[in-house]
Amino acid sequence: MENKNLEIYKKAMDDIHYSDSEKENMVNNLLNGKKNGGPMKKKYDFRKIGVAVAACLTLFSVTAFAAGKATGIVSDIYFGGKSSNFEDIGKLEEEAGIDVAAVGLFTNGYSVEEMEVDQSSTTDDEGNKLSTYKGIRIDYVKDGSPELYLSMFPEALYGEDHEKYDSARATETREYDGITVHYNYDEYLSLPEDEEPTDSEREREETDDHFFISIGSDTRQTDYVSGVNFEIDGVSYVLIGFNLDMSPDELFEMAKEIIMAR
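Structure tokens predicted for DUF4367 domain-containing protein:
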């Protein structure tokens, strides 16, 4: 009974912290990592998925583990400052202890819906916390379009080698004002628990850095994550969206606007 109550409490806190039901649905469809409060079906190797997907996991309070000696990342339950007023970004920076470049309104019409201070920790393979970092998440909205999520954390959260892996994995790379921006377009296949991937799907997951399989959805379904990531002065920026009707050029342009807002 005690364990059951603990799980109910954890789920309730998660629901409060991430109250947007659309986010909950997306993360279940995408990763199925905390479906009904259960454990992840799979361990994700950061050496393959890179910082963009790592940030995706962090955004949605899911634990991921790297292989071997590398650590994982867990998003902590943290009731930090939040605001829907972009003018309050300085207050969030002070609480998070980082200076960021950010945009309140992009030229393509995306604007701030909510900003919040988040906290994430690195862990060892047994789930013991090693280091804790605070960052800032900004949710952007636009009428008739899927939501976009900007995560800004100290680059140390993702490990010293992540830039090398991001460069190797990137679908496309561009440079703006001396800042390298990586673009990725990833496909996630979700399967019911009673369905096994085909041999070709297993083989593709082993060889394709942009294809992932997770188990636990109600039906077979595919979701797509588009995103750009880059670093400015020791802070890692990850701007991602799910099932976007948006070209790489548009995401690159949004990254450029953030960079030029320094």
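The radius of gyration is 18 Å.
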